[in-house]
From TrEMBL:
Localisation: Membrane
Annotated Gene3D superfamilies: Amino acid/polyamine transporter I
Residues annotated as transmembrane: 28-48, 60-81, 102-128, 148-168, 175-200, 220-239, 259-282, 294-326, 358-378, 384-408, 433-452, 464-485
Name of protein: Amino acid permease
GO MF terms, alphabetically ordered: transmembrane transporter activity
InterPro entries, A to Z: AA/rel_permease1
Length: 495
């Protein structure tokens, strides 16, 4: 009997759990969770200089390339979200497709990636709030995040953002969902206004995307293009958030898969239009401002002060909404693992408040860890850039721990010719297998591209050569740390 024909509590019981969390999310709130995580209005603002700095206008084509690969991943996740609609999706899927140990590593890496992602999105407030009002520059001095005062202030503003997000997340899924949905509405309005302003002030045509004159001179054309691809790789993940909230979504087996696909589709189209519009409307392609300031440089040139402030306000709302969405997803991963007794302090972390019906301890723990990552960066923005890349790398690795076991299961089923015990559909099975293969291959290539030790990316100043290995070392440390925690926990629970 398919999950849609079962009552949700009964289906959850078949998966081995009781209904503890409150099901308050509808279709749009489920979609909003994933869309806020990706948050193209925020992340494209942040990452545009990275892509343009290496690839120039031609970096636009990395956007659809990365989308095609990640869309294959999203389709695989949507298939699993229909069959296994449960909190802690990546952890649960990997455990059931492969083994509890592999699933634990997938959950551990997802948790680390999401915790650092909370820090990364919260610190974006520094590029917005001081521009709206100088009073937000609490530390005084230059608000540029590459300067000492700006980097220190970014940590303070990010910490305050995380603290506010933690309070709202602990108040219940209904309140945090309301803020997330409001943020999505603000983001969509902001995107529409921004896209319209960019295209109405276009100075050149779409052919600008074929301009290869601005490629980084310090790399080969291929190397510069691949480095510019990091912008899209850093943006297009987290669409599984809708699945992480499955136990809080009405009719999750039907709604969560659609939300995963829709949020990535809308993010692709909206983000692509912003990138294209910025390239077409930029006052100059060669001044260097697109590679350092990015889209705000274009906005300043085409809008008045009031319009620019309104747009920056919508971006700030989007940043806060994204912080809540990512923190909520991370806390549900931690809650799901703790509920299975596989995390230290499982009893507290798995406790659900009878009043708010949320895992408060897990939410607070995620907030504290995210703030701690910010303070590691206090006064040193280059280190945080490497940590952000590392968060993306561990998340992509965790995704592979789902897509690879799924592909192996699928191949075994196709070769055997027997009825599927996992619930694979007969119709379109060849197409689904092809999509799964693409998800694995693209995931591996994106991970390799992220970990590649580029001096221009991780040590642009040339004074820290060891930083080029930081993302790879971070992944290895995360895997080793996870293995140790897992072994200690298993030993503690052994009879």
């Amino acid at each position: 009997m398919p999950p849609s024909s079962l009552k949700e509590a009964e289906h959850l019981a078949l998966l081995g759990y009781e209904q503890e969390l409150r099901r308050d999310l509808g279709p749009f709130a489920s979609f909003a969770a994933g869309f806020s995580f990706v948050s193209v209005l925020t992340t494209v603002f942040e990452m545009f200089p990275l892509g343009y700095g290496f690839g120039g206008p031609v970096f636009f084509w990395t956007w659809p390339l990365v989308f095609l690969g990640q869309f294959c991943v999203a389709l695989c996740f949507a298939e699993l979200a229909e069959r296994i609609p449960v909190a802690g999706a990546i952890y649960q899927w990997s455990s059931r497709l492969a083994s509890p140990d592999l699933g634990w590593i997938a959950g551990w890496l997802t948790l680390i990636g999401y915790i650092v992602s909370v820090s990364a999105i919260a610190i974006a407030m520094q590029s917005i709030l001081p521009s709206l009002w100088s009073g937000f520059q609490l530390m005084g001095g230059n608000p540029d995040v590459t300067k000492l005062a700006g980097a220190e202030n970014a940590v303070v503003l990010g910490t305050l953002t995380i603290a506010a997000s933690t309070l709202l997340s602990c108040a219940g899924i209904r309140i945090s969902a309301f803020v997330t949905v409001a943020g999505v509405y603000a983001e969509i309005i902001g995107l529409c206004v921004l896209i319209a302003a960019l295209f109405l002030n276009a100075r050149r045509g779409i052919s600008v995307t074929m301009d290869t004159m601005q490629l980084s001179s310090g790399m080969s054309p291929t190397g510069a293009f691949l480095a510019s691809m990091l912008m899209a790789v850093y943006v297009m993940y987290g669409f599984d958030s809708a699945a992480e909230l499955s136990e809080e979504t009405h009719d999750a087996a039907r709604i969560a898969p659609k939300a995963i696909v829709r949020c990535l589709l809308l993010s692709f189209f909206a983000g692509g239009l912003v990138i294209l519009g910025a390239l077409m409307a930029a006052p100059s392609l060669s001044s260097g401002d697109l590679a350092t300031i990015g889209i705000p440089y274009v906005i300043t040139a085409i809008t008045s002060g009031l319009a620019g402030h309104i747009l920056l306000t919508t971006v700030a709302i989007s940043v806060f909404s994204a912080t809540i969405a990512i923190q909520t997803s991370a806390s549900r991963v931690l809650f799901s693992m703790a509920r299975d007794g596989v995390m230290p302090g499982a009893g507290r972390l798995a406790h659900v408040s009878p009043r708010t019906r949320t895992p408060i301890a897990a939410t607070i723990f995620v907030g504290i860890c995210s703030a701690a990552f910010l303070w590691i960066n206090y006064g040193d923005s280059s280190l945080f850039s490497a940590i952000t890349a590392s968060a993306v790398a561990v998340t992509y690795f965790a995704y592979l721990l789902v897509t690879i076991p799924l592909l192996l299961r699928r191949q075994q089923w196709i070769r055997s010719g027997a009825p599927s015990t996992f619930g694979f559909r007969e119709n379109g099975r060849t197409r689904r297998a092809f999509v799964n293969v693409c998800a694995v291959v693209c995931g591996m290539l994106f991970l390799l591209n992220t970990l590649w030790p580029r001096k221009a990316v991780f040590d642009p100043g040339g004074d820290r050569p060891y930083m080029v290995a930081f993302p790879g070392a971070f992944l290895l440390v995360a895997l080793a740390g996870g293995a140790i925690v897992r072994a200690v926990q298993k030993k503690r629970l052994a009879p």
